[in-house]
Amino acid sequence: MGRINTLLLLLFILCTSITSLRGQTSLRGKVIDTSGLAISQVNLLLFQNDKIISYTSSDLKGSFTLTIPSAGKYILKATSLGYSAYQKELNITATETLPIEIPLIPETTSLDEVVLNVEKNIEVRNDTLIFKADAFKRKSQIVLEDLLKNIPGIQIGDSGNITFQGKAISKIKIDNDDLFGQGYKILSKNLNSEVVDKIEILQNYNDSKILKQVQKNDEVAINLTLKDDRKSSLFGNVDAGATFNGRYKIKSNTISLLNKNKAYLFQDFNNIGDEIADNIDGILSPSSNNRLYNFGTNANATFFIDVDRVRPTFDDRISNRNNAQFLSLADIYTFSKDLKLTVNGVLTYDKKRYNQEEFTTFLVENPFTLEESYDIQQKDNLAAGKIALDYNRNNDEIHFDALYYTGNQRINNNLIQNEIDIREHLKNNASVFQLQGNYTRSINSNKAIVLTSKYKKDSKPQGYNISPNIYEDFVTDNETVLGIGARSKEVSEFTGAQAAFVTNSEKSNYEFVLGLDSQNQHLTSDINSVNTAGEERASDAIFNNNFTLENQQTYAGLRASYDLDKVDIQFSLDASLKKTTQKDNANSTSQHFFQINPFLKIDLTPIKNHKFETVLAINQNTAGLGNLYTGYILRNYRAFIQGNAKNDIINTFQSSLKYTYGNWTDRFTASAIADYSSTKNFYSVDALLSPQFNTVTAVSGQKSEQFKAEVHTDYFLKFMKTNLKLNGQFLTNNYNDIINNQERNVISNQLGYGFSLRSDFNSIFNYNLGVNWIKTAFDIGTFNNSVTNNKMFLDIDLNINDKFNMYFKNEKYFFGNLPIDSNFYFSSIEADYDVIPKTIRAHGRIHNLFDSDSFNISSLTGVSTFTSQTQLIGRYVMLGLDYRF
To answer: What pairing do the DSSP bridges indicate for beta strands 668-689 and 722-739?
Structure first.
């Protein structure tokens, strides 16, 4: 079977190569100045009917090659800083290599304005790249995310996270207004791409106009300019679909972009697996990623009790059996040019069901296997609101935001473990209240001060019940016990204030930071039993916690950067004096710690397009509450876990070396990174594993090491008009633990590698295929084990004509240590037809074409082998309409 799959893949590549070669013409040439000398790095673009067909840049000898897909009329344009733009009409009639010489005439051009401007399809202004959307859009690309995939340098991850040249996009703005913050996936996955006029890549982005002038920042954001006819009217779409067996989706976008008020209302009701609530964290995240504004980010409470459930990490529409309702409103009201109010509101409800079979073999001295059958029903509710007020005038900027959200979760699990019927009930509640204020003042064009304050309270109470009592006499010796109850509640309260002074010169940048903060974390938990008479009885003190951890620290920091032509140096030194107080019932102990964290980063560009980056850093921090509480908490139905009261500084050393070749205009780009980290006073575990239950205690004073290496290449194959990507990753971890009274040294290795091919044909047919392998291995003294898993995908895009297109998605999974049924196949077919162009679109979907009813996965850990079988959403046919207004 494996050989047949390989032969089919090779045959497919050969056929597409022949198809792409048919009728192609190579346009080769040289760019020279008026004296006949070669000009390098000239941008060359080939147009047909106002669409970019091909683009490249000239090399050091001024030479270039452009691929022309077929005979016809084209326009060749060339631009370069300091020269007048060149344009030539071409009438291609033969399939042969055509030579051409392009003379450029010198011209004085402002460095602050347009560097590349070819009828504004691609434009560069300082550190902003501007792409004309219509020049890159394909007919089948309905939403913004599809359009962004065609922008050079942009990558879209499996979860929807967006990067540009390897740097994460922090936000997507609309006409320079930020509606969703870091929750931009609501926009990227739902905004109709037809309304977008330009896509602006904002490099060295800064939320503050004042800090933009004085602070060195490598953040990247996107700004969307919408078409003029959308700026003065209400517009959007309603997309609805249904099946014959009760599945549905109803999704709408309603957008208003008036001068004083911009509003975006998004609604999604579906039971086809679409997971919209994942975007909530981004919407409710701090308004700015800037390090001078964003502190206290880890001041969060924790849910300690959970119900075990492992859902396969692949397409939600296959495995996520949901019934979700999501409503989001984002609104920006401009009172004046100086004052602006932003409001975000979110309401969400979701009901999920998981059916799963799990088989876990614990690899201890006397191995044992658990067979578990889960039937989990889960309900989630959340309501959240956030307001932000911005005042900008002359040399002053004031920002204030307030956030509140409340939510609850109910989980019921009918579990069968080794033929024992077990019932679990878990109630989670959460509430967060946060206030933050920032004041930024420009002293002059090179200096600024920043004052920031923050308050946050996070509360997470839980209640859990399990019956019958499966813990024998560990919790209670009462033989009439019907079940066990557990409660946990952590409340975290944080206050902090910070001041910073920033100064900038032509070649250097300095930031001086001084601050103080306080965090109080209080954990209460207990375990009780219920007898046949319905009476509750508290368990021993070892199962109770009344624990408080107080951290008070004063800190100072220096951050500096230097631009030395081909070398950029960033250096920081942060020091803090921290007082920690631990209160455990009647006992209280205090400790003082002095922490110092140096950081050094050197960027070297010895030759154009060749960049080296090295980082050296030491991070010191104290242990968190999760490693310090002393009483057992029933963390899941099989695990009692306790911390270690000993608090100490955890030291982590990190070093990395990265090499990057090329940029977004090049046919070939590559990157390689090696990263090493070592942690002293690492918190490991001392665990007793048994068929009945596990007990785990945190152990301090351990050491862990990690080494990671990655290689990525991206090459445009002109003869196939296809982008080839190769990737490889290697990860190894080395740590110590204690399992069933045996000290172990654990070495884990993971090797991943693969490739993908994505075509860029100017025809009705395009494809995207790839293969990835992951090999995981553990070496634990006398125990060695490994497994290799594989994923293969093939997506086909057919643009039949201007109105009709089809999309085929195919995936194959292979798991190496499954005894049977190691291969799993998933396919879906989607089709779109424009009934009334730009107004009504009909669409259909055949989901799970092979009607696969379950999906088996296998994995390997340091203590067990694990396989599971998850029930999936079966085959259905959905028909729907998308109305755009």
So the answer is: parallel
